[in-house]
Amino acid sequence: MNDEPRAHRPLMAALRSIWRWFKPNFYRCHLAYFVVTILITSVVFHASNTSGSRNDGGQKIRYIDSLFLTASAMTTTGLNTVDLNVPTTYQQSILFVLMILGDLSTVSASVVFVRRYLFRKRIGDQVATSRHAQKLVANIDEELAARQSHVPRRPRNPGNVPAPDQRICGLVVPWETNLWRKTTSALSSWTANAGRQPEEHHYLSFRPKLDSRGRFRQLNEAEYAELGGVEYRALQLLCWLLPLHTAFWIVLLMVILVPYASIYQPVAEVLRDSQAGNLSPAWWAVFIATSSYTNCGLTPLVASMIPFQSNWLILIVTGAGVIAGNTFYPIFLRCYLWILSKVVPKEAEFHHSIAFLLHHPRRCYLWLFDGRTTWVLAATQLGLIATEWLLFEILNINQTAVDAWPLGTRIMDGLYQCLGTRSSGLYVLTISSLAPAMKVIYMVVMYFSVYPLLISLRTTNIYEERSVGLDAEQLEADDAAKNKKKRQDPKKGRLRGLHIRNQLAYDLWWIALAWILICIVEEPRLNSDAPGFTIFAIMFETVSAYGNVGLSLGVPGKTTSLCGDFHTLSKLILIPVMLRGRHRILPLAIDRSIILPGQSLLAELDHHYIDGLQDERNVERRIREAERGAQAESSDVSQPCQDPDT
């Protein structure tokens, strides 16, 4: 009986050593999530093609193309080795789901849910292990029970008496006002904590659940909210705001495009008759709405947006989705919070959560920045778009494809092309028909398109132990030195320059290596001057894959990307390039920031045990003062923060 466990000891030791070597953190778990999802869905995608009849008159999608398409959709790149009218509707639906699963807003929102889980876990551990925390809970519970015995359970006018918490899907909804109740009757459960004054907010006002032996068992959602304090409630708010932002924009685009594409005959006829397969206008509208928001660029219509060069409604709607889903995503989030801060009563507990997010944005979410950084980001994005738009209009003078457009169409299409080049990969004009200088500019823009977001993220990483970590543990000492230097040096431009140089060193070698390897593999085509195969075209394709943009110079006479004619090995090289590009701005760790309010006080009291009731009451008073929530209204932190109106 004892020999069997011994036989497994070497295996278990090997597994433990592999686990220690792997050192799982958020970055590696995120990468594993992408890789596993791509591998599984590629098998399903390929099996759904080979198990039934062949598509498009006998054309069969190879597994390498199935793998490439699923990787392209998951990383929201948009390069396609096969025209998307070839896969079945079921296969297209797989790509549709992958675009959402790999979207920036969807994946980054998972960070908030993970941090919320870590908060809950830390709260449970604190109450379960701290003797004084349990005694403090008992004292507060007696006080709350005495107070509740003299008040109605559901008062008509709550005033300063908190009403019982209500929840939707387990999430506490922290405020309720008459205005909110009138304008959002569908969300009538937002009633929990609106009327509570900060002076009467208790940090630990709950009755703990004990088992038959008196041991701590479980906390409900309201108790988690009070124990976690204002930061935990801010995370609760983000758990609502982020999914609502994504759902709102995707649904809005669908609501506009689906009836328009189905009813408006010029659009419906183009979709049904311009390619084989009798494409459904409604399905195209659903797919393009999601593709534009996720900035993937894949579309069932092989001509992308070229048939709609003069259709301003489609261009404006999909362009708005591109902006809301990527380019201006952090700006939209801060605008939402700023508007809420002006609408919600300042005495409401919910206002403290909003103020906390405005004054301490990076404590809660990776893509929330302070007011000054948000203004700089908005100005930078608008400046880059305007510059690229101006260059498009100037450099394409005397280009036949552009000169044929009317003036209004030329202006609108030039702007739309700029938005597509920066992130989405949607286009109204084939890239190969543009001026040579414009192709070079597009390649540069595809690489640097993420830099405004990236540098904003790097330069706001000033919180040390309580920030959303961006660097590995071995770099923490260097980060502290850089942060100290930044505080001493008023010229923050030097720090931005340092981040840019570091990012260039991180990126360029990977792009150069992939470019060289693909040139080696494709040497026969390069030497034979095969149509579309040039060294610059391969470089353009590589940068597009790394930047997760999806633009391509293509091959004459075909509507697929240039990589559609690549050798299998070249396609395999591009897949990790897309993955690497998708992960270059992600955090490596997110759990460093989980520090509970009052945790140090309780730990000190547990370490130096004091029986005096007065000492425990002093600790309780200090915890309550720290977590009433009113401190969130102040922006006096190491990172200056401004509201958009300041």
From TrEMBL:
GO terms for cellular component: plasma membrane. GO terms for molecular function: high-affinity potassium ion transmembrane transporter activity. Keywords: Ion transport, Membrane, Transmembrane, Transmembrane helix, Transport. Residues 625-646 are annotated as: Disordered. The chain crosses the membrane at residues 31-49, 94-114, 237-262, 282-303, 312-332. It is a multi-pass membrane protein. InterPro entries: Cat_transpt (IPR003445), Trk1_fungi (IPR015958), TrkH_K-transport (IPR051143). Residues 632-646 have a biased composition (Polar residues). The lineage of its organism: Eukaryota, Fungi, Dikarya, Ascomycota, Pezizomycotina. It comes from Hortaea werneckii (Black yeast). Its main location: membrane. This is Potassium transport protein. It is found in: Membrane. One of its GO terms (biological process) is intracellular potassium ion homeostasis.
